[in-house]
Amino acid sequence: MIFTKLRNSFSQVPLLGWLLGALIAVVLEHYLGDALADVVMLPKIPVLFGFVIMIKKPLLIPSVLIFVLLIYALPIGAVARLSAPVANRLVAWLFKFPTIISVGVHLGFLYAILHLWSDISAYRVLTLKLTMIAIMVTLSLNVVNGYMGEFSCSHPAFMALGAYAASVFTVLLFAKDKLFGPALLPAALGPYLFPIALIVGGLVAAVGALAIAIPSFRTRGDYLAIISLAFMFIVKSMIENLEIVGGPRGLSSQPNYANLPTVFLWTVACVWIINNFVRSTLGKALNAVRDDEMAANAMTVNTKKTKIVAFLFSAFWAGVAGGLFAHVLRYVNPGTFGLQKLAEVLAMVYFGGLNSVYGSIVGAVSLSMLGEALRPLEIFKWIIIPLLLILVMIYRPTGLVAFKEFDVKKLIKPKNKQEKEI
After folding, report:
1. How far is the C-alpha of 224 from the C-alpha of 219, rounded, in Å?
2. Residues of the domain holding 316
3. For residue 229, is it within any domain?
4. Which of 114, 181, 326, 368 could form a disulfide with 332 if both were Cys (CB 3.0 to 4.6 A apart)?
5. CA–CA separation, 208 vs 214, rounded Å?
6. Is the pLDDT of residue 407 over 70?
7. Is 394 inside a domain boundary?
């Protein structure tokens, strides 16, 4: 009964209200976090909501729970509930303008929350960047494995192609490096041309995808999985034997262009473009191919062209994510893009949910954060996460949030009845 009352009480809170509550919470942590940590006898502000501290030092679990309750749970709940009437009126007013205005306001609040939250430590910044890149990779793979119904194992190879292509572009033009020598262009131009480097990385990955798409889509069944897995090993071996890009030692000296605003904007663009793609006519054709390829072909759907376009589109975004990945770490190594990376990406796709943009975001964020939270357990982390995946596959075979359409207007609309009518 209590749970039902709480749910009904917060059911009228729009997304903007929750974002406002989260913003107040991170502001409180930013200015009062150190003082509260001292009061509750914590060595410092918990980095990932206290999970790491609770695993390392179980005696501090009560202190962590008090900190999270006072900084996050109570402020978010109180502000969201109290601001609901005002937030609903503001959202209803924003709906009088083009949708992009309302989306921009919500994204502005979201970025402010992420910026203030990550400003506490460099570790948070790195974790947040890698999580957003994981969202891009998971979304791109879901286009093939979810919406198209095939099984591809080549995304680490596409990431590698994009990472090395974008790295060579920026290091050759804007950085002084022992492999490429002095920069060819002034370093001041680098941040402005960095989007071109990422697009180049995506295009190189898409061209590499043709090597898989042309032979594999002439057949049916499991051939794509076999060919794509072989392609991953071929790309990894090829890079390891190319001394011009460092060979097995890897490539470094990437300029520091992948800051938090840049990664955030590319992630937003990826979510928006892929969501529009899967909701378009071509996306519906993909679903038809997945459900029954012969029937789709009989209904005048060019199944081969549809699958190739979707596969190249997916590879492009994996390449862009790889370029961002290389410039976040400022080092790239062919060993990074092997079986472990493939297992991580596949786990995110199938854990979050097939055929769902929501699912890809949930899978990428949850497994990325869970992996970091369980890092102190070392080898036991790789026992807990697979067990969790097994449970999900047993009780939710299609993932946590599968086959759910990502409708932005429904997400940001007012929640109370009066504002809906307006």
Report:
1. 8
2. 122-410
3. yes
4. 326
5. 11
6. yes
7. yes
Q: Which two tokens stand for residue 238?
A: 């090829």
Same structural domain, 163 and 48: no
> Do 140 and 69 fall into the same domain?
no
Calpha distance 316→204 (Å, rounded):
8
Split into its structural domains, the chain has a count of 2
Rounded distance between C-alpha atoms, residue 173 and residue 163, angstroms: 16
Burial 119-143 (b: 16+ CB within 10 A, else e): ebeeebbebbbbbbbbbbbbbbbbb
| CATH classification of the domain holding 327 | 1.10.3470
Tokens, residue 232: 């991953």
Q: Is there a single domain that holds both residue 134 and residue 22?
A: no
Q: Select from 51, 77, 105 the last residue of a domain.
A: 105
pTM of the model: 0.92
Last residue in a domain, options 43, 76, 105: 105
> In this structure, are 96 and 179 located in the same domain?
no
Tell me if 196 is assigned to some domain: yes
pLDDT at 1: 63
Question: Is 150 in the same domain as 290?
Answer: yes
pLDDT-based confidence at 301, cuts 50/70/90? Answer: confident
What end-to-end distance do the CA atoms of the chain give, in Å? Answer: 32
Residue 419 has pLDDT above 60, yes or no: no
Does 146 share its domain with 246?
yes
In a domain, 111, yes or no: no
